[in-house]
Amino acid sequence: MTRFAPSPTGYLHLGHVVNAIYVWGVARAFGGRVVLRVEDHDRIRSRREYELALLEDLAWLGFEPDTGLAPLLRQSDAPARYEAALADLGRTHHVYACECSRKEIGGERYDGSCRDRRLDALPGRGIRVRLGPEEECFTDALLGPLEQVPAEQCGDLLVRDRDGHWTYQFAVTVDDLQQGITLVIRGADLVSSTGRQLALARMMGRTTAPVYLHHPLIRDARGEKLSKSAGDTGVRELRAAGVSAPEVIGTAASLAGLTDHRGALRASEVGTLFEP
Ligand SMILES: [Zn+2]
């Protein structure tokens, strides 16, 4: 079981289409199933209009989740799941409140200064879980063997931020565990998160880690990540300009280096790109 997990913080663009080609393509080639999850844990940037647009564009492209759209799996719909997962985690691991602001922490790595302060989990305070010093070793399906030490990368992991929002790392790990995701396919910009998610999943009792596949991101003419640029790479804009769905998919596959031509490719055909 794999997943397509867009965040409704903007419209679908060719970068998403590349991810969808990998997700549906690998699932079709190897007999897997695709679940759709709306990753709207970021309550400040997520918008319902973007979610509706994402679903509409995805259906227009022809990518259909095997588990359907009803009920739609949306992170914001089930805060009790995360509360329960946090309570479980706290029974076996050191979970603590942290009042440090992002500014006080400075870089990405938290030094653990609140670890032994026994602060109450009051509103305005974050929640962290202590990470051990272990090295996480895994074999990415595309990138090969990788090693990461989460405690050195980020320090004790933030589970809920000071505004009360569940973090990406925590929400995605809970979801992947509860939804039985065995293959995670996503862009290479997220590869550094993998060790943290492996460590957290194990702490939550997951015995068999998912397989990870991180694929290259496509970039625009200026070398920028597509999600940071706008304009001619949006699926909406391409649709409005009269480009067909197979042409959009074919263009994305070509930009990602999966084909050597820009010919049209139907969503139902993407498995052929990955057949062993
Ligand atoms: Zn702190």
Outline the secondary-structure elements:
Layout (H helix, E strand, L loop, with lengths): L1 E3 L9 H17 L3 E5 L9 H14 L11 E2 L4 H14 L2 E4 L3 H4 L20 E4 L6 E5 L3 E5 L1 H5 L2 E4 L7 H11 L4 E5 L6 H10 L7 E5 L19 H6 L4 H11 L21
Parallel strand pairs: 1-2, 2-3, 9-10
Antiparallel strand pairs: 4-5, 5-8, 6-7
The site of zinc ion has 5 residues, from loops.
Short description:
This protein has helices spanning 14-30, 48-61, 79-92, 102-105, 150-154, 168-178, 194-203, 235-240, 245-255; strands at residues 2-4, 34-38, 73-74, 95-98, 126-129, 136-140, 144-148, 157-160, 183-187, 211-215. With 276 residues, the chain is an alpha/beta fold.
What would your notes on this structure say?
- The protein has 276 residues and is α/β, with parallel strands linked by helices.
- 33% of the residues lie in helices and 15% in strands.
- A three-stranded parallel β-sheet has the order 1-2-3. A three-stranded antiparallel β-sheet has the order 4-5-8.
- Helix 7 links the parallel strand 9 and strand 10.
- Helix 6 crosses helix 7.
- The longest helix has 17 residues.
- The model has no long low-confidence stretch (mean pLDDT 93).
- Bound molecules: zinc ion (ZN).
- The site of zinc ion has 5 residues, from loops.
